[in-house]
Please model this.
Amino acid sequence: MTRALSHPLLIGEIYVDFTITAAGLENKLRLGGIVHAARGFWALGQPFSVAAVLPEYLDQPAHDYLTALGCVDFYILGRVRGAPNVITIFDAAEVGDQGYETLLRDEKLVELFSLDLTASTHTDVLIFPGAFDVGKLNGVLPEGARLHLDVAYDLADPNSLGTLAYNIQTILISTSSTLFQAHAAGGLPAIANAFAVCSPDTILLKENRGGSRLMNCGSGEIEHLPAQLGATINSVGVGDVFAATYVSFLAKGSSEAGWRASYAAAAYSQTTHPDLFASYVQRDLKLSIDELKALSGVILSWEDRQKVSLYIAAPDFTHADRRAIDRSISSLEYHNFRVRRPVQENGELPLDADHATLTRTFQADYDLLKKCGLVFAVPTGRDPGTLVEIGLAIEMGIPVVVYDPDGENANTMVMAGASMYSRDLDACLNAVFSLLSKRLQ
Model:
């Protein structure tokens, strides 16, 4: 790949990520925050420098680790006080809300130092805003610096970027961020309008398993970048690697940068072992941009997920063991799918319901099933009604995704008749994205 004369500068906080795993598995502890983006630069073979905000106890470990990744200069931009900058993570695969919690977050204070990098040669600066005032970066960076800001989680007000006296080339934002949620009803145009105060050249909306959208703010043109779905081992930091790769390839144009970023992000989601991640990235770098595009992928925008109704076939009853059902519904709603729950919509019948009531409810459920474009089945307890609904949907030609956490329904008709059968919710969620992507493209 073509190298710029200078290497990127990475700015933001360094955390410790503490991923809490299922019982019997070892919890995972590793450096997080902007270190995820640093791993992306390293896997690409891209030198970089870091201006970090971190607690003092992380100074030496972070310096040593980043230097091993190829960090040229390690600057301390600021100090975190009152908190250890440790994040606990409960859903690393982001099947649903990841459950981030920052220890002692209410006690946390950030003190920025007087750092002067105006004489440096950094032309591209990748910034992850955190618990510090980004406006205080004025006078710190070279006058001609091009800024790329990933505002996924720690920017409450886009207007705060209007004080930055630099060219803001790229805004990267994620559908999982509260800032996006505040403007989601208006779609990408509303996001662009919210950031008009800082006049970015490009806005990149990362839509999780549905791909990304790249918007040229000058022309209004939008390019869809597909997601490459596989078994999700870890989603933490995937967007950060996307941002680092995008900045690394901008010399080849925003389109190729976006495609390369999509593949690197997918690689990061499939392993937590750095060497294996790097091997995946280097493998993909051997492919031309035309070869990457030929591989296609999944495109399902945030808004399009509301265009098709998902029928929940499950014993969605008050008295049932609801753990797998609730987790499935929560996951689908987190990803903005339009969920239809027949038991909730048409009523939960008493055990002694008369035949007329049973017939009326059956017809209502049947009519709702015909209106839906996909069935998501959770046949816990080998629920007979759910199995009938699976069969009806297969006969109607409606795609069926069966999430069977306990493997109770591993029989030929269910496994072969369904579009996806799995005990893994992550695999079932990927199937929903893939099936609806094909339907709506």
Observations:
- The first strand starts at residue 9 and ends at 19.
